[in-house]
Amino acid sequence: MKSFSLKSSLVVLFLSIAFASCSSDDDNKTPAPTTKAALVTEIKGPATGKVNDELSYDVTYVVDNACAEFDKISEVTIGDVKGLQVIAKYPSEVCTQQVPDPKKTVYKFSSKVKGTFEIKFKKSETEFLTQKVVIE
């Protein structure tokens, strides 16, 4: 009787290990894309505007490979100066298109007050590219 109980326990243990090892829970998960700051090479847009008007600026930036896509614009600080940076999203798969063209996105700016403003985008690890705009 002990022999039968021991054999039954071993069979149950073996089957449970076999089912657990064949589980395909992790097979369908694709790695999440990664994000990285892209460096801006050019800002084009109006130098003047009116209070509460939305101004559009074309922002040109470079990415590491041609598979990268625009993700978002976020704030960044270099030293004690605040500005903006473009964040690019890279797919987790290997990119076969290695030579990237400069990419563009549009940044929208508006102000509720009159004055001179500087739109600053990160162009290197130590400096910003600046576009001045006068709001009347």
Note the topology.
Layout: H1 2-21, E1 34-44, E2 48-49, E3 55-62, E4 69-78, E5 81-90, E6 103-109, E7 115-122, E8 128-135
Parallel strand pairs: 2-8
Antiparallel strand pairs: 1-3, 1-5, 3-6, 4-5, 7-8
Radius of gyration: 27 Å
CATH class call: Mainly Beta
**What fraction strand?**
over 45%
Enumerate how many helices there are, as a single number: 1
Helix content: 10-25%
In spatial order, strands of the major sheet run 4-5-1-3-6
Note the main sheet: 5 strands, antiparallel
Identify low-pLDDT runs.
Answer: none
Coarse morphology: elongated
The tally of strands reads: 8
Organism: Flavobacterium humidisoli
Keywords: Signal
Protein name: Lipoprotein
Question: What do you see in this structure?
Answer:
This protein has 136 residues and is mainly beta. It has a single domain, classed as Immunoglobulin-like (Sandwich), CATH 2.60.40. The chain contains 1 helix and 8 strands, in the order H-E-E-E-E-E-E-E-E. It has a 5-stranded antiparallel beta sheet with strand order 4-5-1-3-6, with no helix packed on it. Strand 4 and strand 5 form a beta hairpin. It is elongated, with a radius of gyration of 27 Å. The mean pLDDT is 86. Keywords: Signal. This is Lipoprotein.
Short key terms for the protein model shown above:
mainly beta; 3-stranded mixed sheet; Immunoglobulin-like; 1 helix; signal; about 15% helix; about 140 residues; 5-stranded antiparallel sheet
Could you give a short description of this structure?
This protein has 136 residues and is mainly beta. It has one helix at residues 2-21, and strands spanning 34-44, 48-49, 55-62, 69-78, 81-90, 103-109, 115-122, 128-135.
